[in-house]
UniProtKB/TrEMBL annotation:
Pathway: Carotenoid biosynthesis. InterPro entries: Isoprenoid_synthase_dom_sf, Squ/phyt_synthse, Squalene/phytoene_synthase_CS, Trans_IPPS_bact-type, Trans_IPPS_HH. PANTHER family: BIFUNCTIONAL LYCOPENE CYCLASE/PHYTOENE SYNTHASE. SUPFAM superfamilies: Terpenoid synthases. This is Squalene/phytoene synthase family protein. It comes from Shouchella lehensis. CDD domains: Trans_IPPS_HH. Keywords: Carotenoid biosynthesis, Transferase. Pfam families: SQS_PSY (PF00494). GO terms for biological process: carotenoid biosynthetic process. It comes from the Bacteria.
Length: 278
């Protein structure tokens, strides 16, 4: 299979699973855009193994072994996802570390279902979300990606904390609680309160405590946005601001994170992008 066809298969994967992500990066120049598709396809494969695999632990181990062989240039390039990613590694100054770190983060989801401290949750957030930003950095900012390292980590943590705050009910249904026990204890919120969908003052104050941490990470990330090349600035900042708006959407839904999913409307997304373009 040629590289062009391999990229198109990755493009299909991103369009199927994340229209928002596909749209956010659709304005990039072709080579950068294709690289985003290939990186997304890698991340999606890891996600699917954990969420849908018959034997996720051994499948993840096999996939990590494949990636190890890919890095050592020992893997036969027959799968279109590897063909496309190989082209990305040839074209850009890629670092394998965040790819391995992401696999480690997804493995955490197989074994860890509760977290004690906010610091532990932030470490998890680095592994499953900041790593994606670090994978994309050499593509989005080829000449100065090292300068944006901390900003990308902060944005990933902000977005993952936002996910956690939005998906409390959904995660409970999968027997997962990402809210740190130490913060819940500090505000007098018990897991049994979450199970009955308690949205009282204690819960709201606890939720806002974690939201404030997410806001700090967004601010830290946005300080360095001017360092991105012009073609990447709008997609990255736009994605960050759309995610940040989810926190506002939860507040507008009276903090009901148990029986409804808060989202940012298409109109609000357009407004955010228009403000950035102005």
């Amino acid at each position: 299979m040629n590289t062009k066809d391999a990229y198109e298969i990755c493009h299909t994967i991103i369009k199927q699973h994340s229209k928002t992500f596909a749209k956010a990066f659709s304005t990039l120049p072709q080579k950068k855009r294709q690289a985003v598709w290939a990186i997304y396809a890698f991340c999606r494969t890891v996600d699917d193994i954990v969420d849908e695999g018959q034997s996720p632990s051994s499948e993840l181990e096999q996939f990590e072994d494949q990636f190890n062989r890919f890095i050592r240039k020992e893997l036969p390039l027959t799968d279109p996802k590897w063909i496309a990613l190989d082209d990305v590694f040839q074209r850009f100054d890629m670092d394998a570390t965040p790819f391995f770190d992401m696999i480690k983060g997804q493995r955490m989801d197989l074994y860890v279902k509760r977290y004690e401290t906010l610091e532990e949750v932030e470490q998890y957030s680095y592994h499953v979300a900041s790593t994606v930003g670090l994978m994309l950095l050499p593509v989005l900012a080829p000449s100065n990606h090292q300068q944006l390292h901390n900003s990308a980590i902060a944005l990933g943590k902000a977005m993952q904390l936002t996910n956690i705050l939005r998906d409390i009910g959904e995660d409970l249904n999968r027997d997962r609680v990402y809210l740190p026990k130490a913060v819940m204890d500090a505000y007098g919120v018990a897991e049994k309160d979450l199970l009955i969908g308690e949205q009282g003052t204690a819960f709201i104050n606890m939720w806002e405590h974690i939201a404030a941490r997410a806001e700090n990470f967004y601010q830290e990330a946005f300080i360095d946005m001017h360092l991105y090349p012009v073609d990447a600035r709008l997609p990255v900042q736009g994605a960050g601001m759309m995610y940040r708006a989810i926190l506002k959407a939860v507040r507008l839904n009276q903090y009901n994170v148990f029986s409804q999913k808060s989202f940012v409307t298409k109109g609000e997304k357009e407004m955010i992008l228009n403000e950035l373009k102005a």
